[in-house]
Write a structure and sequence with these properties.
heterodimer; A: 285 residues; mainly alpha; two-stranded antiparallel sheet; 2 strands; 77% helix; B: 210 residues; Rna Polymerase Sigma Factor, Chain: A; Arc Repressor Mutant, subunit A; 2 domains; 11 helices; 75% helix
């Protein structure tokens, strides 16, 4: 009798999701409580009214997916961090390489430097100097000096030798024998040969001049001939021109005389006519 | 509940399909989208009462489904898992809309004009067009009643009333206890009763209207 279903149970009952004892209990409770039945009825009413909502018809649009994104190590945040660290380390190492960075720990001292390492030599020299005594240093200096001198002397003597040798060679090359043979050749030439040489030279010269003269005279002749022809042509032309001018003058004179004749004739006829007129006038009078 | 159409029956027996999709079969995934799109879209539509937002949310839900189906542990829980994705997608979309202060042009456009081609497509020619129209009108009216519920109650009521999920499945989808689901359902129905009373919608008025 004390059983009273809560909302959850009622809902489960309403939607038919109750089974077994619980369902029986709820049903028994409903038999005894009509107000609960009314309430359930009201809810069923709501259900049936709300069932009036229809489904919308819809067609599934194409769903476009990008290709399966693979999770590579370098795409994860951890991978990116690691790559970043590695890249910066490489960068630092490269920078160190190019700037010649040196970091060394020696005798409890940390040395950081750029450029060529010169740290080892001064240290060693310092230690070496501290070990050497002054006499040893003197010895070393002497030794090096004497070595230097020796080498200088050796070089000097070598160069001296070379010089001597070259002079001697030059002298040898300018030996008398060559000079003598030249002189001998010159003296061996006989007078006959010389004369013959002069004769041939003369003949050559004469021939050359003759050729030149003939060539020259023929050229000149040709030139003068042309000149004469031109001059003759010029004279002829001049004559013709003069004749033409004379002809023209004569023509003009002829014309003038004709005109003059014509005019005089006219004058004469006018005089005659006037004389005749006067004569006839006189006779009439 | 929804009618037992052929695709619905296919949905009931889609365990092997889900299994194939889970193994990365793209065809199976596409088939799942086709099978479930209408249900998820209708869930989203009832949640928003807005076609564009419902399309947006359901598409996002299915993209998420295709991406994550391979990680699904239990094939038998595919349904509640899918609704869980849909619920989250809807909530996210609602939050986005709430946050964006821009005015959408979609709200300016006459909603009826936008709905009409879809409505026409859905119409079976041999049915009485007037009755069809009244049905649509009633559906819209009831939908508005549904929108008056709180988000929590609305989610539960849609999933129970229209999607036919079991209380256990709803609890899984919403990540809450079964009892909470049931009590939300109860208060949801109670609230709907009051809303219907206030709007004077009763079985009789509906019958008269129909």
């Amino acid at each position: 009798m004390n059983f009273k279903p809560d909302e959850a149970l009622l809902m489960a009952y309403l939607y038919g999701e109750l089974q077994g004892e619980e369902k029986v209990n709820v049903e028994r409770y409903l038999l005894e409580h009509p107000e609960a039945v009314r309430e359930l009825e009201a809810l069923r009413q709501v259900q049936s009214i709300m069932a009036g909502i229809t489904d919308k018809e819809v067609i599934a649009p194409p769903i476009v997916l990008d290709h399966q994104r693979k999770h590579y190590f370098w795409n994860t945040s951890f991978g990116k961090t690691m790559l970043g660290i590695a890249a910066s380390l490489t960068l630092i190492m490269l920078a160190g390489k190019f700037t010649g960075l040196h970091i060394s720990v020696k005798d409890k001292t940390l040395a950081i430097g750029f450029g060529e390492s010169s740290s080892d030599s001064p240290a060693e020299v310092a230690t070496a100097q501290s070990v050497l005594t002054s006499s040893e240093v003197q010895d070393m200096i002497n030794q090096s000096l004497s070595r230097n001198n020796e080498s200088l002397v050796a070089q000097w003597s070598e160069s001296q030798q070379k010089l001597d040798e070259s002079i001697r060679k030059n002298l040898a090359s300018y030996s008398d024998s060559q000079f003598n043979t030249l002189m001998k050749k010159v003296s061996a030439a006989s007078d006959e040969q010389i004369r013959q040489f002069a004769f041939t030279l003369q003949a050559d010269n004469a021939q050359m001049i003759k050729d030149y003269m003939t060539l020259n005279s023929s050229d000149q002749r040709k030139y003068i001939e042309e000149l004469l022809i031109d001059f003759a042509k010029y004279l002829e032309q001049q004559n013709r021109n003069d004749l033409q001018v004379l002809q023209a003058r004569l023509n003009s004179i002829e014309q003038n005389t004709d005109l003059f004749k014509y005019e005089t004739e006219q004058i004469l006829t006018s005089i005659i006519s006037s004389v005749d007129n006067s004569k006839s006038f006189a006779t009439k009078n | 509940m929804h009618a037992e159409t052929l695709p619905d029956m296919a949905l009931m027996h889609s365990d092997s399909l889900v299994e194939r999709a889970r193994q990365g079969d793209r065809n199976a995934q596409g088939k799942l989208v086709q099978l479930w799109y209408k249900r998820i879209y209708n869930y989203c539509f009832k949640f928003f009462l807005d076609h564009d937002m419902a399309m947006e949310a359901s598409q996002k839900a299915f993209i998420s489904m295709c991406r994550n189906v391979e990680a699904l542990q239990d094939v038998s829980r595919f349904k509640s898992w899918l609704y869980k994705i849909a619920v989250n997608s809807c909530r996210e979309e609602a939050r986005k809309v709430k946050n964006s202060r821009s005015l959408s042009f979609d709200h300016v456009v006459n909603a009826d004009a936008e709905d009409s081609p879809a409505w026409e497509k859905a119409v079976r020619r041999n049915e009485n067009p007037e009755r069809q129209y009244q049905q649509q009108e009633l559906s819209d009216l009831l939908q508005k009643c549904l929108m008056e519920l709180s988000v929590e109650q609305r989610e539960v009521v849609i999933m129970k009333e229209y999607e036919g999920l079991k209380f256990r499945e709803i609890a899984e989808a919403l990540n809450i206890s079964e009892n909470t689901v049931k009590s939300r359902m109860y208060y949801g129905l109670d609230a709907l009763k009051k809303i219907l009373e206030r709007r004077q919608i009763t079985k009789e008025t509906i019958g008269y209207e129909l």
